[in-house]
Amino acid sequence: MSTQRRRIDTYLEQLLDEDRFAFYRAVADFGDSEIAPHLLGWEREHRLVPDDAIAKMGEMGLFGLPIESEYGGQGGSQLDLVLMGLALGYHSHSVAITPGAATSLGSKPLQLFGTEAQKRAHLPDLAAGRRMFVFGLSEPGRGSDAANPEVKAVRNGNGWVITGEKCWSTNARWASHVVVHALTEPSGRKGHRSTCFLVPMNARGVTYGEMGGKMVWRQSSTGSISFDRVEVGDDAILGALNGGFKVMAETLNGGRLFVASLAVASTAFALDKVATYVQERIQFDGKAIGRFQRVQDVVFELDLAVEQGLTWLTHLLGLYAKGTLTREQAAKVKIACSRRASELLLEAMEICGGVACLDEFGLIRHHDDLFVTRVGEGSNRALMSQIARPLLPDIVKDLQ
Known about the structure:
Blueprint: H1 7-15, H2 18-44, H3 51-59, H4 78-89, H5 93-113, H6 116-128, E1 132-136, E2 152-156, E3 159-170, E4 175-183, E5 194-200, E6 206-210, E7 222-233, E8 237-238, H7 244-280, E9 282-283, E10 287-288, H8 293-322, H9 327-352, H10 363-375, H11 380-388, H12 393-399
Parallel strand pairs: 1-4
Antiparallel strand pairs: 2-3, 3-7, 4-5, 5-8, 6-7, 9-10
Helix pairs in contact: 1-8, 2-4, 4-5, 4-7, 5-6, 5-7, 7-8, 7-9, 7-10, 8-9, 9-10, 9-11
């Protein structure tokens, strides 16, 4: 597949300027040469993304894409981050999410809400890929209700004591710090009860363990992080005291666009794989199965989903750059792209038959990984409820 032009490239070339398209192609070429040949081996050996692959992505500047040049980054935009997601996610969500989460969930909250001292202390190393931050948001007892964390930070003299556990934390294995979203004002009004703290992973009382048994994003690190009376000072606060919800919400807004790009990347992979296969698979009177209308329908639906997803994402990225993207818009594109991709991957696998179940064919990897795009960065079901409420004002009034 790497020898033929990807269908997604045809649409991106029309949507992007020459420099942006060249950047996308450079990352895609990197994925073809440095990731695709090794991916199956990593999977069968049950390995996380190897350190040397992470180092190569760091050398390419992928961890510093949206970080300002004054802090050692590339000075790019969320569009660049999404293009990276499309390029690397074509082969592997696990690989794409490693620099993706490191930037959209790790360095982004620091960029948006960090003090100058915090930025200068951390962003240069984050931009170079020498270190990563992990966002501690989900908890064993809190998933969709992330605005009301069970992890608590209690004032103790001139500092704070943090207690509790975070889970489903992407990149935990490689993280130097965790951004902890903790309850600090239990009686505060909605959206003003929590605070984010920058906590070193090697601080006393912090323990990390890789979450076992995960059958999706298998090369991505997903950790559980516990806090046993971890002490931090006021200088660890990221953003405003009791302003943790704002940090969380603005961080996730851009992250949902990245997750949508992974779903589109999977659809693009399936389109190329199926289009090639159905022209080569000979059945019934010595002819290719691509001649059947029902087979052609699936190829068409895959193509339509790729073009629609890219066009929608490009529009929303323009709004993000202007600072006018709403939470509802980011959630909608994440929901729509992830659901459509999941549906179409099943159709694609049915067209290809039993071979689609083989790991070396690639479709089963995308089929499994797409589940994360439906529950990550906010469960689709919970997000749909949030989006629907403003459309039903009488319901919203009853819920208040």
